[in-house]
Amino acid sequence: MSRYTGYQDYHRRATVKWQRKLREKARSLFPRACAICGIVGVLDLHHLTYRKERPLKDPMKTFREAIENPKNFVQLCRRCHFAVSAVYKISPEVIPKLLEIVKLTRKGLDK
User: Which among 3, 52, 88, 95 would be 20 to 30 A from 73, CA to CA?
Assistant: First the structure.
């Protein structure tokens, strides 16, 4: 037996359908591949700039914002999204050192 009343069940299904359409419309504005590595698969919308009221906890608000201002977003795979978010928190003067360590690590893995 459903725990929803007829109206609640209708409202829940209508909301899910509306959210799916909003998400699909937002994602259709972007290439179907990660902007960094080119992988096709599960992709996230990443803000290029943030508003003062960050963080956005409501993914539907993010999709609406992407539709209104697509130039403020880029589509990334989960791994690149994590990497960009992590590097974003590092001070700019440290990034060359970080890249050098990444190069050394890759050389070590190639042996």
Answer: 95
Can you name the residues that pair with 44 across neighbouring β-strands? Answer: 76
Q: Which amino acid, residue 51?
A: R
Q: What is the pTM of this model?
A: 0.61
CB atoms within 10 A of CB 68: 9
Bridge partners for 73 per DSSP:
47
Helices (H) then strands (E): counts for the chain: 4, 2
At 94, the pLDDT band (50, 70, 90 cuts) reads: confident
Q: Residue 38: which region, alpha, beta or left (left: phi > 0; alpha: psi -120 to 50)?
A: left
**pLDDT tens, residue by residue, 37-77:** 999 988 888 878 766 555 556 666 777 777 788 888 888 99
